[in-house]
């Protein structure tokens, strides 16, 4: 592998760029092979896009290192695709050339999730370099479409349940962040459904001076629809969508007491005057154990600098709903579609409405009594000398619940990323400290896990 490695823009958001995702997967596969791993680039099948077009999916890496039947087998999941990133978004450095500044490594994917994937490989390499036997058998599953909902992976896991996964004892994921500066073990993630709301009106974009006032504008319809989804307190306005949220128990509430989350510091990190909630516990619960709806963007609208006086002919609004137990993505999707159709009918619009839902990822919650958490807790103490915080995560690992349900194996999340790493944001980074100590944490985790067996 040449140094510096070539910049690979493995942004999975646009399917026309999945070639770069494949390049990234091939590079990762080559690296694992050089380390002595056996690698299969497994066929992930096809996927139908919202447009109706069927596309071939990039493969999934299934890899393993030498197996000793006396040892426990750990399967590590990660992804090497990333969210979109452009200099114009406001990055201080080229997002696709890793740049070190004052102990931080900046670049898209530095923390979500290329950095942690590499840290797992370094942990294996550290045993190899010191000629120490790795105390557990290692398997890897690395995909390239996590950031769009892990298309194809659900089926692949089902297909390989009795082969690749048959001898796996534990599944571990490091694809999320600590809540504070204290290392953490994560026991829950939110699910997600992503919606495209398309409004199509005239045949062409129209001159607003010539036609304005005589046309029901697609953008105005769309704004009315998007505006109907949330109130100013962040409450989702879709009837029945939050009905299945599990009630908070006293035991669960207590888990929030010890989290050293500083509300003032967090306001500074994100640059807001206040959050929608008043206390640390309420803010964390809003981010981790209650649903939320976010409006992400509008395709087709004029968004360049300067002014252009058109009535856009077709616009597509994009939003998603983060889901928690016991919400069910298909049920949420049905309710959202009914809501949008109902609101649209009140607009008496001649335009055409089309709603498409993608992702459909379930929330995940682990059993904290699971023995992996004991090993994780000990490994954190070994490396950092502190007790980990037990946290949940507001973002989504689409495949987490499927791993648990389909394989019946124990799943744990062991994050090494900092709370201020800026996943999906401008200037995403991982600190050298988290990267190196995180690598040590993974190596220690192999050891602590082997003691459970
Ligand atoms: C389905 C989502 C796009 C997945 C994505 N996952 C992560 O960010 C994990 N680090 C998310 O937006 O939650």
TrEMBL record:
UniProt source species: Esox lucius
Keywords: Hydrolase, Metal-binding, Protease
Leader sequence segment: none
One BP annotation, GO: proteolysis
Cross-referenced SUPFAM superfamilies: Zn-dependent exopeptidases
Membrane-spanning residues: none
GO cellular component: cytosol
PANTHER family: BETA-ALA-HIS DIPEPTIDASE (PTHR43270), BETA-ALA-HIS DIPEPTIDASE-LIKE (PTHR43270:SF16)
GO molecular function, one term: dipeptidase activity
InterPro entries, per the entry: Cyt/Met_Dipeptidase, Peptidase_M20, Peptidase_M20_dimer
Residue ranges of domain Peptidase M20 dimerisation in the record: 187-343
Protein name: Peptidase M20 dimerisation domain-containing protein
């Amino acid at each position: 592998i040449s140094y510096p490695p070539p910049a690979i823009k493995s942004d999975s958001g646009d399917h026309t760029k999945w070639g770069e995702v494949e390049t990234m997967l091939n590079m990762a596969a080559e690296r694992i092979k050089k380390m002595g791993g056996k690698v299969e680039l497994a066929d992930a099948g096809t996927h139908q896009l919202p447009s109706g077009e069927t596309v071939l999916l990039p493969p999934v890496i299934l890899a393993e290192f030498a197996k000793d039947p006396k040892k426990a087998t750990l399967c590590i999941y990660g992804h090497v695709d990333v969210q979109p990133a452009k200099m114009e978004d406001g990055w201080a450095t080229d997002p696709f050339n890793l740049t070190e500044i004052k102990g931080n490594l900046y670049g898209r994917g530095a923390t979500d999730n290329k950095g942690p994937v590499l840290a797992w490989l370094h942990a294996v390499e550290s045993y190899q370099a010191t000629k120490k036997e790795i105390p557990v058998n290692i398997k890897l599953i690395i995909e390239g479409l996590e950031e769009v909902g892990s298309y194809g992976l659900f089926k692949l896991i089902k297909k390989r349940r009795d082969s690749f996964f048959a001898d796996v004892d534990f599944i571990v994921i490091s694809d999320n962040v600590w809540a504070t500066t204290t290392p953490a073990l994560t026991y829950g993630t939110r699910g997600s459904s992503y919606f495209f709301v398309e409004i199509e009106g005239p045949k062409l974009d129209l001159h607003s001076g010539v036609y304005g006032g005589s046309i029901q504008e697609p953008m105005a319809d769309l704004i009315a629809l998007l505006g109907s989804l949330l109130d100013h307190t962040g409450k989702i306005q879709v009837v029945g969508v939050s009905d299945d949220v599990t009630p908070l128990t006293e035991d669960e509430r207590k888990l929030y007491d010890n989290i050293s989350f500083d509300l003032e510091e967090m306001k500074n990190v994100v640059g807001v005057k206040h959050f929608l909630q008043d206390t640390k516990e309420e803010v964390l619960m809003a981010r981790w154990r209650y649903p939320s709806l976010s409006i992400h963007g509008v395709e087709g609208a004029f968004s360049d600098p300067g002014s252009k006086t058109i009535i856009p002919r077709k616009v597509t609004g994009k939003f998603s709903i983060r889901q928690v137990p016991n919400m069910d993505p298909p049920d949420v999707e049905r309710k959202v579609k009914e809501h949008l159709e109902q609101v649209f009918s009140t607009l008496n619009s001649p335009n055409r409405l089309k709603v498409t839902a993608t992702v459909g990822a379930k929330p995940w919650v682990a059993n904290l009594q699971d023995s992996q958490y004991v090993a994780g807790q000990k490994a954190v103490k070994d490396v950092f000398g502190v007790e980990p915080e037990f946290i949940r995560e507001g973002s989504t690992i689409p495949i987490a619940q499927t791993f648990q349900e389909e394989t019946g194996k124990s799943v744990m999340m062991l994050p090494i990323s900092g709370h201020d790493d800026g996943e999906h944001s401008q200037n995403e980074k991982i600190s050298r400290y988290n990267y190196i100590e995180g690598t040590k944490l993974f190596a220690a985790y192999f050891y602590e896990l082997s003691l459970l067996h």
